[in-house]
Write a structure and sequence with these properties.
The complex is a heterodimer.
Chain A lengths: L1 H42 L15 H8 L1 H32 L6 H9 L6 H12 L5 H7 L16 H26 L3 H9 L4 H9 L4 H17 L2 H6 L11 H11 L3 H36 L1
Helix pairs in contact in A: 1-13, 2-13, 3-7, 3-10, 3-12, 4-7, 5-7, 7-10, 10-13, 12-13
Chain B lengths: L2 H29 L4 H6 L12 H8 L11 H31 L5 H13 L6 H11 L5 H24 L4 H9 L4 H12 L1 H17 L2 H6 L7 H11 L6 H35 L1
The chains are: A mainly alpha, B mainly alpha.
């Protein structure tokens, strides 16, 4: 009896790890691939309220591109993406440089600038919605303080509502940029700094000529992450402006949801989702290539 | 500028900026203690004239959200019931995934890892329609269990990424020695890898908890009415009361919704930051 159980036990020992290893790996791989392929497929079919897998070619794409919603949303994404990334990076860099001056209570400052990243976009959007609301927010406060002509009503202004999203987004994400920039500033080689200081370079020149140029990869990484962030932005707008007034601050991510679940047009909504993915790929694929190129170059130098 | 003024100036600017960053939080905290009349007469930004503690009890158990007058408590509980199991399971499976990808190398493991990390970057919008169909077929539509499932599968990409990158720093010789001693897959995981894991597991748990608690799109798409998590309830709340705003109670609701992740940040900020940076740069 005993002789028979030993090989069985060994076989069992060899099989069980596979039973444990593979399911989660297979699930996460199929999830990434099958779900994307599925949405791409739906985008090429006649699906409306329910999936209907009759081939429809690219007609969902052409008709989506022709809608006013999509056109406004993509123009808004261009404005929001550019301004959000620029403002967030500028603020993050300013904060990082200030904190890098061996300030007192550095940890407290860092914690304060980063805490917005811990709250949800829904919370951020709701609070900023109040602050920017002219009848109860900042404008009202300034009026009550006696400056009756003060105007800050962007959130209800068709041309400026999208900039409110930029402000709230930058408030939330600039601490993240700060953290990455600070890590970059701290990793500049001390020898480089010393040599520049011996040459008598002032603080301003030291940063512009020596420190920032050596942080190129970090600037690119932060920019890519923030762009990715911008393209995916959804809840922030829903909570802050609900895409309004009218369609003034709508974004592609909102158009996707609107078509899929409010208008019951799964085909066109999926086409919009695929275009959202494509815009993300435009940012991430070159970045991935750049990173592997850099990794190879570093490996070659080592 | 004379050099002895530079340092005070830097501190001054930092203090001003810090105050500006704190204003939104301060506004919510103060408004949660003010009456709505007080807020409407002045503005959102101001000190309470009298402290109104009842905002919290009102918002917690009496408030009406889309015809249900049970306060935000059920939604808060939903969020807990969704976040805690999803965080634990996705972290454990991620650790296991990371362990087998990093230390039990097999043919094509880097490809598998690459595909899994794709899931980190895919926008949620790409997965909405498949999830609708999958949840409907499993009978999990509009249930907390459905949301837990979504967050486990979705979270696996992140947790695998974190753990795999951490485990690659464990020296392979350590494992070889253990294997020569006759230790198998589980014993090595249990005796060698897990004891080395607390730092990355804390990072992963904090990341998952924060991410799942704060998530909105899945919550609003796959749950309705009283099954929704707190983020979706907050949005429903502000839509519902836009005719007759109740800013005081609403501020209390916002504060309660933000409190769990803020507390996690307060006590685990260092780990939160590590998750952020490794999730971003890697």
């Amino acid at each position: 009896m005993r002789r028979a159980t030993v090989p069985l036990r060994q076989r069992f020992d060899r099989i069980v790890p596979h039973l444990v290893i593979w399911p989660p790996i297979i699930i996460s791989c199929t999830y990434a691939i099958v779900f994307s392929a599925w949405t791409i497929w739906v985008s090429l079919t006649r699906s409306t309220l329910l999936p209907d897998y009759t081939w429809y070619g690219f007609r969902n794409y052409t008709s989506m591109l022709a809608t006013r919603n999509w056109q406004i949303a993509s123009a808004n994404l261009a404005i929001y993406g550019t301004c959000f990334v620029a403002l967030t990076m500028a603020t993050g860099l300013l904060l990082a440089v200030l904190i890098d001056q061996r300030v007192r209570a550095e940890n407290i400052f860092r914690a304060i600038f980063l805490y917005p990243m811990a709250v949800s976009f829904v919370v951020t959007g709701t609070i900023w919605g109040w602050l920017l609301n002219p009848s109860i927010g900042i404008q009202k406060l300034v009026h009550d303080l006696g400056w009756a002509g003060f105007r800050f009503d962007w959130v209800i202004d068709r041309d400026k509502a999208i900039y409110c999203v930029v402000i709230a987004g930058a408030w939330q994400a600039s601490g993240f940029a700060m953290a990455l920039f600070l890590a970059g500033l701290r990793s500049v080689e001390a020898d480089l700094l010393k040599a520049a200081q011996i040459d008598g370079a002032g603080a301003w020149r030291l940063y512009c000529r020596v420190v920032f140029p050596s942080m190129g990869p970090i600037f690119i990484a932060v920019m890519v992450m923030l762009l990715q962030f911008a393209i995916k932005t959804y809840d922030l707008v829903v909570a802050l402006t609900a895409g309004g007034p009218g369609l003034a601050s709508t974004l592609p991510s909102i158009v996707v949801y609107d078509f899929m679940f409010q208008r019951g047009e799964l085909g066109r909504g999926s086409a919009a989702a695929v275009m959202l993915l494509a815009s993300l790929a435009v940012v991430l694929v070159p970045y991935a290539i750049y990173r592997s190129w850099r990794a190879r170059r570093v490996a070659a130098h080592a | 500028m004379p050099s002895r003024l530079v340092r005070p100036a830097i501190h001054g600017v930092l203090l001003l900026l810090a105050a500006a960053y704190l204003v939104p939080l301060l506004v919510v905290v103060l408004n949660s203690l003010r009456s709505t009349d007080d807020i409407m007469q002045t503005s959102m930004i101001g000190w309470p004239r009298t402290l109104v503690w009842s905002n919290f009890s009102e918002t917690w158990s009496h408030y009406c959200i889309a015809e249900h007058c049970s306060g935000i408590r059920p939604y808060f509980v939903n969020s807990l019931e969704m976040t805690i199991p999803a965080t634990i399971v996705s972290t454990l499976l991620g650790a296991l995934n990371g362990y087998s990808l990093a230390l039990w190398r097999f043919r094509g493991d880097t490809w598998v890892f690459g595909i899994i990390t794709l899931g980190v970057f895919l926008p949620e919008q790409m997965k909405l329609v498949p999830w609708v169909i999958v949840l409907r077929d499993l009978g999990l539509f509009n249930t907390i269990a459905g949301l837990v499932l979504i967050h486990i599968v979705q979270g696996l990409s992140f947790t695998t990424l974190f753990c795999r990158n951490y485990y690659t720093s464990i020296p392979v010789d350590l494992l070889k020695a253990a294997r020569i001693d006759g230790a198998g897959f589980f014993r090595i995981f249990w005796r060698i890898v897990l004891p080395l894991s607390p730092p990355i597991l804390i990072v992963t748990v904090i990341w998952q908890f924060t991410g799942i608690w704060n998530e909105y799109l899945y919550g609003v798409t796959f749950a309705a009415g009283e099954q929704q998590p707190i983020t979706a309830a907050l949005i429903a709340l502000s839509a519902h009361i836009s005719e007759a705003p109740l800013y005081g109670e609403q501020s209390a609701a916002v504060l309660l919704a933000a409190a769990p992740t803020l507390l996690v940040y307060l006590f685990g900020g260092r780990y939160f930051l590590r998750g952020l940076t490794s999730g971003a740069v890697k």
